[in-house]
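Researcher: Structure for this, please.
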Amino acid sequence: MVGVRIIGLTGGIGSGKSTVAAMLAARGASVIDVDAIGRANVAPGGPAEAAVKARFGPTIVGSDGHIDRGALARIVFADGDELAALEAISHPVINAEIDRSLDAIAARRGEPDDDLVVVLDMAVLVGSRLGRDLPSGRGYDTVVVVQAPVEVRVARLVQHRGMAEADARARITTQPDDDAQRAAADYVIDNDGDRDALRAAVDLLWDRLCAERATHQHGGRP
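Model: Predicted structure, token format:
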């Protein structure tokens, strides 16, 4: 995918990351849902299911013989070493699937495609090589972080996802804090307002990305 811009889009739970991904798709980007790839990884028959069951044992296996994702989450989100063990199994498999998705996008849209922006919608980016160390040598070259105040995120999780407040706060504390995310970001979208404000922020981001591509394509001349 020569000349294609690959964006790593991340944000903590409840920040609105996936909403931003959908808005970018509406503006012409191709979006790869890395989180969905990760879920499929450990689903029944998934490529990492057997290895994860072997590593974590019967306590994560449900009555149907497959991984109970809730039980697995309770283990890995409470212990950094256990989370690292899960990522060591799953991330290489996810990266290989991202590569296949990039190839499928290229085949569908044709090469070269100088106007193509691909967004990797991914919760796990900061402190990870997910989406970066792809088998093909490709990976995201720009990081966009979506942020919102913790209290706003908790309210969204309770109201829109039906999570208990304590569970929402516990999930938030397992993820990189705002400072760590901002340190990794090329662009930050603050999603603490209404949907119109978010659309305006995404429009500004899209215009900047397009301007950068135009500058690059013309040898650095705007």
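Researcher: Any notable elements?
Model: The mean pLDDT is 88. The CA atoms of residues 16 and 24 lie 13 Å apart.
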